[in-house]
C-alpha cells in the first residue's frame, strides 16, 4: 500500500469517526455519551492530522530520494551516450582507414582469385557469383564491426555463423561452375 492509499484509508476512517452523535445515543437527555463520542471524535481527528503529517513528510522524503535517483540515472545515461559516441567515432575512423586501402586490398583479392581459379573469373556466370559473394561478405563484415563496437556478443556469434554459411555456399557454387567450365 503506497502513501496515497494510506492517506485515503485514514481519511475515510476519520470521516466515520467524525460523525457527531445524534439523539439516538443521548438517551433520556443524558449528555455523557454524547460528550464522550464528541471527545473520541476529536481525538480521532487529532490522530488523523498527526498521521497525515507523518505520511506527508514520508512522501516528501521519498520524492526527494527519487529526485536524487533520477539525477544519478540521468548522469549514467549521459555517460553511456558519451561512450557510444566515442565508439562510433572510433568506428568511423577505422572505416576511413579501410577506404584508403581499398585499392590495395582489391588488387590482392584479384591476385588470390587468379591463383586459385586461373582464368575462370573471366566468365560472366563466375563474375556474377563473385560479385554476389563480395557484396554479402561486405555486408556481414559491416554488421560484425558494428556488433563488436557495441559489445553485442550474441550478434557477433550469429554473424560468424552466417559468414561460414556464405563461404560454404560460395565454395560449392564455384566448384559447380568450375566443373562446367565457367558456363551455366
Word description of this protein:
With 184 residues, this protein is mainly α. Helix content is 84%, strand content 0%. It contains 5 helices and no strands. The longest helix has 69 residues, at 32-100. It is rod-shaped. The mean pLDDT is 80.
Rg calc: 40 Å
Q: Which secondary-structure class do the elements indicate?
A: mainly alpha
In helices, the fraction of residues equals over 70%
Q: What multimeric state do the chains show? A: single chain
Strand percentage lies at under 5%
Uncertain parts: none
Element-by-element helix/strand order: HHHHH
- Give the end-to-end Cα distance, rounded to a whole number of Å: 75 Å
The tally of helices reads: 5
What sort of overall outline do the alpha carbons produce when their principal axes are compared? rod-shaped
Average pLDDT reading: 80
What is the number of beta strands? Answer: 0
Q: Give the biggest sheet.
A: none
Would you kindly provide a brief summary of this structure?
The protein has 5 helices and no strands.
Amino acid at each position: 500500500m503506497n502513501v496515497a492509499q494510506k492517506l485515503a484509508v485514514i481519511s475515510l476512517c476519520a470521516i466515520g469517526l467524525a460523525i457527531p452523535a445524534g439523539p439516538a445515543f443521548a438517551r433520556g437527555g443524558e449528555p455523557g455519551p454524547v460528550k464522550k463520542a464528541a471527545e473520541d471524535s476529536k481525538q480521532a481527528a487529532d490522530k488523523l492530522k498527526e498521521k497525515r503529517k507523518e505520511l506527508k513528510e514520508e512522501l516528501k522524503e521519498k520524492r526527494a530520494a527519487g529526485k536524487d535517483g533520477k539525477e544519478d540515472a540521468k548522469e549514467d545515461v549521459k555517460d553511456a551516450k558519451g561512450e557510444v559516441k566515442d565508439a562510433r567515432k572510433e568506428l568511423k575512423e577505422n572505416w576511413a582507414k579501410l577506404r584508403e586501402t581499398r585499392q590495395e586490398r582489391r588488387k590482392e583479392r584479384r591476385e588470390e582469385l587468379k591463383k586459385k581459379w586461373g582464368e575462370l573469373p573471366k566468365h560472366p556466370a563466375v563474375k556474377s557469383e563473385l560479385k554476389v559473394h563480395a557484396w554479402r561478405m561486405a555486408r556481414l563484415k559491416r554488421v560484425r564491426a558494428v556488433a563488436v563496437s557495441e559489445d553485442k556478443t550474441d550478434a557477433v556469434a550469429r554473424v560468424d555463423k552466417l559468414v561460414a554459411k556464405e563461404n560454404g555456399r560460395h565454395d560449392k557454387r564455384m566448384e559447380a561452375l568450375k566443373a562446367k567450365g565457367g558456363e551455366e
